[in-house]
Amino acid sequence: MNTKIITITLVIVAIALFIGCESTEQVVDHSTDNQVVNGSEDGCKKFYNLAMNYQRSRLWAEAAEFYQKAISCSTDYIDAYIAFGKMYEELDSTSAAEQVWIDMQTNNPEAIESYTHYGAFLAEQGRYDESEQAFLKAHEICPDNPTPILGLADVLTQQEKFDQARPYLEQALAFTEDEDKIIAIKQRLAKCAVGMGDPSYAATLLEDILIRYPDRLEIHEWLVEAYKSMNDWTKALEHMDIVATEDPTLENTMKYGALLAQAGRSSEAISTFRKAISMGGGLSAYKQVIGLLQRSGQTSLAMQFAEEALASYSSDSYLNLVVGNKYYAMAVDAYNNSDWDGAINYCDMAIGYYSNASSGSYVGQAQEKLNSAQQLREAARLKKIY
Q1: Taking the chain (386 residues) in consecutive chunks of 10 residues, what is each chunk's mean pLDDT?
Q2: How far apart are CA 74 and CA 84, in angstroms?
Q3: SS3 breakdown of the chain: % helix, strand, coil, rounded to 5?
Q4: What secondary structure letter does DSSP report for 22?
Q5: Domain boundary among 268, 288, 312
Q6: In CATH, what number is assigned to the domain containing residue 264?
């Protein structure tokens, strides 16, 4: 599994603050009420509710006005800060969003949300060092709460600092009792394990997840990569078969064919690639199977696929080069057997294909082969004359 297979997004906002310090976020009545009582708790909530209603109506300026009134009314109104900052983030108003998060920190320095939300924002901007510091501050405020720990681990993982992220994930796992959250943490640990060159540990974690969620195809996909890293082709193919059967897309069929080829099961790989071609896999599928056949020494069959593909992709330089090689090899055989006419004819065919390939990405190889075919043709012509 390479380190890019498992995409881990920041989930700081989504994960509930379920252990340790009590969250300061408030539960409010979101009913619309235009009767605002300035300075009272009810009045602050009504400002917040009005802002939410304006936001739902996409009246951004009005929503911003009432979010500002809500936090001015009560500077410790965490819900209002969060909704206000998130609105600006959704509008891609990054400078305005950042100012909300800074104001939230300034007015609520002991609330871990002040740092987790800002940390997530900074990570989205690619400001990883600052993001790490924000999550570390939240962790300092509430050491037993896994939310800051997970945020920090995610930021480190995004930077592929797997050795630094892993201890935080293990710490978060120790603080967590909810089974679904345990599963999510184990997924992160699996990515770190692979990044640190420990696919066996990753496979153990992922197999454990499958016990509870046997139908989660992404877990099977990650296990394919883990077992590939261990050269355990039997288990890799077992999980890939599940993926390709349950989600028989062209992409998965191609992946299955490639994995079969890597495992040395050429005939099954060819059959799978033929299926991919029939599914519309096109040029990519043809090239995969041609390459596989050439590597396995089945040159004649590779040429059949290449000529078949050329019927639909006549300008592709790779296909022209492959078929050109076929006729050049035939020309060499004819020349060695003193069949001068055969050598000339085959050289003419090879020259045609090499000329087509000379305008593509294989121009260097094609030009070299073209020169060789022209020289061989001239040699055969002279032999025929003399």
Answers
A1: 36 37 42 46 87 95 95 92 95 95 95 94 94 94 88 89 89 82 85 86 90 89 91 96 95 90 87 89 87 79 88 92 93 96 96 88 89 95 89
A2: 14
A3: 75, 0, 25
A4: P
A5: 312
A6: 1.25.40
